[in-house]
């Protein structure tokens, strides 16, 4: 499990592909707005209320079977639960603040009326399972306009977003800037950068787990 006894020096926690089996109870995490836990062994969505200001949560590629414990995240805008083991979806468990939701690769997406049920429960949703939501309330507020080629890369990049959001700006602008930056990063990433990333993950894991638990 990962857990922490105190606040971290950044608004983002990245622990993807770290063989983590559960989310431990933490303290002092009000400053965390982005949590990356994709490609682990997590089976249960728990202790998420420790991150009350969370806006971005990625749990793709885990072993989660049930949608739960999200009601304590009133600011959550993007949730990636793709490629888990969720068989039955209860849309009332989803925060109404969501703008982007990905459940692709879960058995629940084959339920009759799945998409209609999700859209009815989430009036602010802009994108569901990499498909845009036409005529959503959030889309109307954001206004029209054409998308750039970098913005069109959203579908591919959503599960692996990397940089922290700028929390004092609009969510959609933050998302587009992050996607564009990630696209450029992927085109220029070299061996030294890769090694630096691995070292960063080791240091963050040691910080979260505490002495003697690495």
TrEMBL record:
Signal peptide range in chain numbering: none
Entry keyword set: Cell projection, Cilium, Leucine-rich repeat, Repeat
Listed Gene3D superfamilies: Ribonuclease Inhibitor
Subcellular location: Cell projection, Cilium
Region of interest (Disordered), residue spans: 132-153
Repeat in keyword set: yes
Record-given protein name: LRC46 protein
Organism: Pheucticus melanocephalus (Black-headed grosbeak)
